[in-house]
Automatic annotation (TrEMBL), chain A:
It comes from Caenispirillum salinarum AK4. Pfam families: ABC_tran, TOBE. One of its GO terms (molecular function) is ABC-type transporter activity. This is Molybdenum transport ATP-binding protein ModC. Residues 293-358 form the Mop domain.
UniProtKB/TrEMBL annotation, chain B:
This is Molybdenum transport system permease. GO terms for molecular function: molybdate ion transmembrane transporter activity. It comes from Caenispirillum salinarum AK4. Gene3D superfamilies: MetI-like. The chain crosses the membrane at residues 20-40, 52-73, 93-114, 135-161, 200-223.
Length: 372, 232
């Protein structure tokens, strides 16, 4: 259990965040820049000191103002992967990797050097210096360096933010694989919903220095776009589905979810595997009757629950299709179709984005995008 | 060939100069690093004053610095008399006095160089080392110090060169005693005071210039090697 409850005044900004999450898998701190994510993770690491509060990992208090506990950062055993890597430029990759490891008593080392090097694919870099690594390689070494201290918690502060899309792709799969390889809880800071949907199990939404929501990713994300914490284009629903069947003739895979089935481009996953998919509000339309003669493959009945306030000629409609799905339609469509809450309609899904293919610990290949 | 061999007087002055300068630099380096760290990394009341005091020898006439040293560390000085009475230590009019005078004069240059490069060290790297389990002292020894290496080198070379050329404070505090405190500049000065010393004085000029040049070249080569290490 990761238990955080901190207050700290920084000039005019007050960080006042409290949340807890299971000490397994990835907990994401998500919010706009300036929402206090990094402040919180720095307090967990001990880089800055809360005015008051408590920070504990599996009942071990790292900070507790009431009990006057404030472990210095070198004794917190929190591995920290910084946005900018922060590799020691005067040491080889190997020396960087073993810097923290050597300071851990051999009996307490639970993560082996060869495992980390193998998993991160950095074996060929060991004798180089950081100046001669690419951004993606640097971040992989930084992750390895933190892991090798056998930390009780791994902190990652936007580890991909400084990388371009290609480099991100060099690092993301390794981070996604961490929980499966090493049983170390991760606290991951990001402002990218894509990253979080791909990686996180638990989501803590930060806004204005406060943790405004915390819980399983699917639950929190559904409520996200009402809070204004994500860009309009990012808004949508996240569903956990299971692979039901494959249709090799059409290169399609059928995914079952509480509201029915989604057919997506074929994925190499065993039947029964859990898959997290994301349906952006902008990719969903509404039909009054089941449409015939269309290319839409994913249509299912749904009930209108809410209709959001109009914005730039568009409204977000919350649909209940056994689970929540959002549809973004124009106000004109809303009026001509005279939609209202309680009405039974059909949700038309243009495309489905696969975000994570190993929910609940299933074996999975690297995620891919699937069009419906 | 005759012209290329050093005379006894030259050899004496040269080896004395080297000894004085080496000791001046070696003795003040730990202090220099400590003060550079203090000024670069700590805020404390009176910081401006400490900074000012360190820089004083740079702006004071060297004779004043030498005189202050004589008054404090001399045989009857404020501190010197106790050093002599209790420990039998006497600096004034020995080569050690010349080393102290050189060290004090060169100190601001050394501190400045090290401080500048310490301020340039990415604090984030030190934080990273802390989160990896290193104590503050270990971080200093394994991250900060290696990264300020080029700055320390510059400081050392500057201080060494300054020590070699030190004259005013030395002659005031340590006097001009042949074989004891008569370093190259003092020997040169002495020669200019005697009729017919011009040729010998010129030779000392050349030796001084060669020495300074050698120090600069050595530092440049070392600095390049350090840069290369950092760049991989």
């Amino acid at each position: 259990m990761l238990d955080v409850s901190v207050r700290k005044r920084q000039g005019d900004f007050l960080v006042d965040a409290a949340f807890n999450s299971p000490a397994a898998g990835v907990t994401a701190l998500f919010g706009r820049s300036g929402s206090g994510k990094t402040s919180v993770i720095n307090m967990v690491a001990g880089l800055s000191r809360p005015d008051e509060g408590r920070i504990a990992v599996n009942e071990a208090a790292l900070f507790d103002s009431a009990a006057r506990i404030d472990l210095p950062m070198d004794r917190r055993r929190c591995g920290y992967v910084f946005q900018d890597g922060r590799l020691f430029p005067h040491m080889t990759v190997r020396a960087n990797l073993t810097y923290g490891m050597k300071l851990v008593p051999a009996a307490r080392r639970v993560i082996a050097f060869d495992d980390v090097v193998g998993m991160l694919g950095i074996g060929h870099l060991l004798d180089r210096r950081p100046a001669r690594l690419s951004g993606g390689e640097k971040q992989r070494v930084a992750i390895g360096r933190a892991l090798l201290t056998s930390p009780r918690l791994l902190l990652m502060d936007e580890p991909l933010a400084a990388l371009d899309e290609t480099r991100k792709g060099e690092v993301l799969p390794f981070i996604a694989d961490l929980p499966r390889h090493f049983a170390i809880p991760v606290l991951y800071v990001s402002h990218s919903l894509d990253e979080i949907l791909r990686l996180a199990d638990t989501l803590v939404l930060m806004d204005g220095g406060k943790a405004v929501a915390a819980g399983p990713v699917e639950d929190v994300v559904g409520a996200l776009h009402l809070s204004g914490a994500v860009d309009a284009a990012e808004a949508g629903a996240v569903l956990t589905t299971t692979v039901e069947a494959h249709d090799p003739a059409h290169h399609m895979t059928l995914l079952a979810f509480p509201g029915g089935r989604l057919s997506v481009r074929r994925m190499d996953l065993p039947v029964g595997a859990a898959v997290r998919v994301r349906i952006r509000a902008g990719e969903v339309g509404i039909g009054l009757s089941p449409p015939r003669d269309t290319s839409f493959q994913n249509v299912f009945p749904a009930v209108i629950r809410d209709i959001g306030p109009p914005q730039d000629g568009q409204v977000d409609v919350r649909l209940d299709a056994g689970c929540t799905v959002w549809a973004r339609i124009t106000t004109r469509a809303l009026e001509t179709m005279s939609l209202r809450p309680g009405q039974v309609v059909h949700a038309l899904v243009k495309s489905v984005a696969l975000t994570r293919a190993d929910v609940a610990g299933h074996e999975a290949p690297p995620p891919q995008r699937a069009a419906g | 060939m005759e012209a290329l061999t050093l005379t006894d007087l030259e050899r004496e002055a040269l080896s004395l100069s080297l000894r004085v300068s080496l000791w001046a630099v070696a003795g003040s380096l730990p202090l220099g690093i400590a003060f550079a760290w203090l000024l670069a990394r700590r805020d404390f009341p009176g910081k401006v004053l400490v900074d000012g005091l360190i820089h004083m020898p740079l702006v004071l006439p060297p004779v004043v610095t030498g005189y202050v040293l004589l008054v404090t560390l001399g045989r009857r000085g404020v501190v010197g008399q106790y050093l002599y009475d209790w420990f039998g230590i006497q600096f004034a009019f020995t080569w050690k006095a010349a080393a102290i005078a050189s060290a004090v004069m060169a100190f601001p240059l050394m501190v400045r160089a090290i401080r500048l490069s310490m301020e340039a060290v990415d604090r984030g790297l030190e934080q990273a080392a802390r989160t990896l389990g290193a104590s503050p002292l270990r971080v200093f020894a394994t991250v900060t110090l290696p990264l300020v290496g080029p700055g320390v080198l510059t400081g050392v070379i500057l201080a060494f060169a300054r020590s070699l050329s030190e004259f005013g404070a030395t002659i005031t505090f340590a006097s001009n005693i042949p074989g004891e405190t008569r370093t190259l500049p003092l020997a040169l000065y002495t020669l200019t005071q005697v009729p017919g010393g011009d040729a010998a004085a010129f030779r000392l000029c050349v030796i001084s210039a060669l020495l300074a040049l050698a120090a600069l070249v050595a530092s440049e080569l070392l600095a390049r090697r350090m840069q290369k290490r950092l760049k991989g």
